[in-house]
Amino acid sequence: MSVPRPEAAVLDRIRVGSAPDSWGVWFPDDERQVPWQRFLDEVAGAGYEWIELGPYGYLPSDAGRLREETGRRGLRVSAGTVFTSLHRGPATWDATWAHVAKVAALTQAMGARHLVVIPSFWRDDKTAEIIEDSELTAEQWRNLASGMERLGREVRDRYGLDIVVHPHADTHIDSEAHVERFLDATDPDLVNLCLDTGHYAYCGGDSVKLIETYGERIGYLHLKQVAPDILADVVRNGTPFGPAVAQGVMCEPPRGEPPLEPVLAAAQRLGVDLFAIVEQDMYPCAPDAPLPIAERTRRFLRSCGA
């Protein structure tokens, strides 16, 4: 006799979307990436309503044209994304702001309210070249915290956006210890977190524990899973993140870790509206690979109640 599957939880505070990353898009322009028109067609066809901008310049940067292209496909933008190197101190501010301002202006024009901020890599994600030490000095931690607070204030005051900082493999905000140190050093009124479940698991963290401990700092979610067997090989060999992705370390749910049902349930218990954007790192990938994965992932998330 078959055992009936428990009814899915009601996740009425979770707004599900996807992103160019799930179509193998990491760069504004790359011959191994699908054209942006195909991404928009397929992400809408897979059943998603919300998308991120992805790397600035991949989607049209003219807000009028982008509104037209997304609107006729029934899509809306949840966030833009920027990369920063604020641990290097005030000398990096002008260059950082020049980049941030462009992305923030487009994000605002598209009606979104979040800017995902990814710290710079200490190891190049294409070449695996070591760029700088993987551990920050005390002064660099102070620079990082104060720089993110300044960024949060400026982005909020000038563009009405909230920054959510994305812990990421091969950056200085990665492991549980580094994430907690960063959160404890920054003002919650200015800086919150984009919790990427896959990156956090990749770096040994527990997403449910983080949500339950620092729930008031969780402003945004990226849904992602890691393949445990491939991750074990990556850790054993010290493989850089880019080559690890090429090996398939990020996999489609529900095949990997962490289980997403408890993560979504913990996020729902926070009692606030949260975006949960699917991001399965797949660069590079065959152009026909993303759509069926995206369709299966959307069906899985619906089965979870999202």
TrEMBL record:
This is 2-keto-myo-inositol dehydratase. Gene3D superfamilies: Divalent-metal-dependent TIM barrel enzymes (3.20.20.150). Signal peptide: none annotated. Pfam families: AP_endonuc_2. Residues 40-304 form the Xylose isomerase-like TIM barrel domain. It comes from Streptomyces varsoviensis. InterPro entries: IolE/XylAMocC-like, Xyl_isomerase-like_sf, Xyl_isomerase-like_TIM-brl.
